[in-house]
Every structure is written in C-alpha cells, then in structure tokens.
Specification:
Layout: H1 2-19, H2 27-39, H3 42-45, H4 50-58, H5 65-78, H6 87-110
Helix pairs in contact: 1-5
C-alpha cells in the first residue's frame, strides 16, 4: 500500500513536471497543480471553499508539501530533462550555503 502511494505520487509529479515546465522552478505552482488534480480537477475546485480545503488537507486528502517537494527533487536528480532553469544555479550555491550555515551554527553554539 505505501509503495503504491509513493509510485502514484511519483507518477503524478513527473506528469505535471513534464506537461507544465514552469512547475520545475516553482514548488508553489507544482503544489497547486497536484492539489487541483487530487481535488478532482478544475471543475471541482470552482465549488470548494477554503474551509473545505483546509478540512480535507488536515484529513490527509491532499499530499503534504514536503512529500511533493522531496519527490520533485528526486525526479530532477534522476531525470535531467525535468530540471528547471534554476536547477544549476541552486546547486552551484549549495556549498557556499552549507559553509555559511556551518559558520553561523559554530558561532551560535561555540560563542
């Protein structure tokens, strides 16, 4: 059951990244597409209130943002054609961000 859910989520995320290239650089846009899909499509969301969405989100009807973004990162790691325009830029900054965080946490905890 869990493996099936993961594979289904991966299929949906991959499909959206393929069909909607702007989602490759925008987790907010990707999440929007996923949630519209999970809600039953554009027609259904015309009639759903924010209260209903929140209730359904809390009730786990909609995917968690962290799971979707994790899935996107893994797919982009394995399928370069699904990477957005910002992918290389983000990864080039990775080392300097790590160094900056290590320096900050060292100062924070070592005085």
């Amino acid at each position: 059951m869990i493996i099936e859910k993961i594979k289904n989520k991966e299929f949906i995320v991959k499909d959206i990244l393929t069909k909607h290239p702007k989602t490759r650089d925008s987790d907010s846009l990707l999440l929007s597409f996923i949630w519209v899909y999970q809600a039953g499509g554009k027609d259904y969301i015309q009639d759903i209130s924010m209260r209903d969405f929140i209730s359904d989100f809390i009730g786990k009807r909609f995917a968690e943002p962290s799971g979707i973004t994790r899935c996107r990162r893994k797919l982009q790691e394995h399928y370069p054609e699904l990477r957005g325009k910002l992918y290389d830029k983000r990864h080039k900054m990775e080392e300097s961000v790590k160094e900056e965080i290590n320096k900050w946490t060292g100062e924070l905890f070592n005085g």
